[in-house]
Amino acid sequence: MDDADAFSAGLLERRLLLNRCRSCGRWHQPPWPSCPDCWSEDVLPTEVSGRGVVHSLAVLRTGDTLGVVELDEQEGLRATALLLGAGSRIGQRVRMAWIDRGGSPVPAFEPE
Amino acid sequence: VKDRVAIVGVGTTRYERESSRSELALALAACRNAIADAGLTAADVDGISGSWLRAETVQGALGIPRCTWYANTVPPPFHLQVVAAVHAIAAGACETALVYHASRRAPRRGLLRAVLPPPSPWPDSIAPTAAYATWASRYLHDYGATREHLGLVAVNGRTNAGLNEHAALSEPMTMADYLAAPLIHAPLGRLDMDYGIDGADALVLTTSERALEGPHRPVLVHAAALGQTRYAVEENLPDLAHSGLDVAGEALWSRSDLSLGDVDVFFPYDGFTIIALKWIEAAGWCAPGEGAALLEDSWVEGERRLRIGGRVLVNTHGGSLSEGATQGAGHVREAVVQLRGAAGARQVPGAEVALVAGGGFFFNAGALLLRI
Question: Is the pLDDT of residue B117 over 70?
Answer without folding.
Answer: no
